[in-house]
Amino acid sequence: MEVKKSELQFDGKILKVYKDQVLLDNGMEVTREVVRHHGAAAVVPVTENGEVILVKQYRYAVGREMLEIPAGLLEPGEKMEECAARETEEETGFRPLEITHLFDFYSSPGYCTECVGVYAAKHLMPSQQHLDPDEDVEVEILPLEEAVDKIRSGEIVDGKTVAAIMSVSAQSLI
Q1: Are strands 71-73 and 115-126 parallel, antiparallel or unpaired?
Q2: For every residue of 69-93, which 3-state class applies, written as one string?
Q3: Chain center to CA of 89
């Protein structure tokens, strides 16, 4: 595959959109629209009692409140593990003393380069939330089994949250 031409269509704060002309291996020339994103980290904070800490926030793009694990964009030069620890404290008000890597995934590889590192956070020390001015986040602490039930009932539908909670549940990480 060969990129013949790549044109920036949109240059935003968190992503860039390109329209590429690509020559496929079979000789066909096609257009591909690609969202270039510098990555993110997500984390399942797990309490000593085997509960998970989730955040509820309104998501403008889908027009509804979502119950999710804490997550955020990588800052320049920041490692995913550092981002996961930072986001745990910023969004939940708990500082993790232990971070364990669970897995990485591409959120939508058909058109987007975003790679998300997913972690579990344990040994949580009370701290303070440090929300961005545009964030309105409500913390919810649930038993792991209840979070899994909310996935099965369709109440939790965020992809990173579904994958992370099910991974923690399957691995018996608590």
Answers
A1: unpaired
A2: CCEEECCCCCCHHHHHHHHHHHHHC
A3: 15
**String of b and e for 16-31 (b: at least 16 CB within 10 Å)?**
ebbeeebeeeeeeeee
Nearest to 68 by CA among 152, 129, 157, 133: 157
The parts of the chain modelled with pLDDT lower than 70 are 172-174
* pLDDT at residue 173, rounded to an integer: 54
Q: Which residue has the tokens 């998501």?
A: 59
Query: Tokens for 165?
Result: 């909670």
pLDDT value at position 133?
Answer: 84
Q: 3-class SS at 118? A: strand
Output the pLDDT for position 71: 97
Whole-angstrom distance, CA of residue 40 vs CA of residue 131: 17
The token duo for 98 is 């232990």
For the chain, helix (H) and strand (E) counts, in that order, are: 3, 10
In which residue are the tokens 């949250």 written? 161
- Taking a C-beta distance cutoff of 8 angstroms, is the pair 174, 153 a contact? no
Of 62, 60, 129, 67, give the one whose Cα is nearest residue 94.
129
The 10 Å Cβ neighbour count of residue 57 is 15
Task: Using the Cα atoms of residue 111, residue 115, residue 121 and residue 124 in order, give the sign of their dihedral.
Answer: negative
Cβ count near 67 (within 10 Å): 19
Single pTM value for the model: 0.91
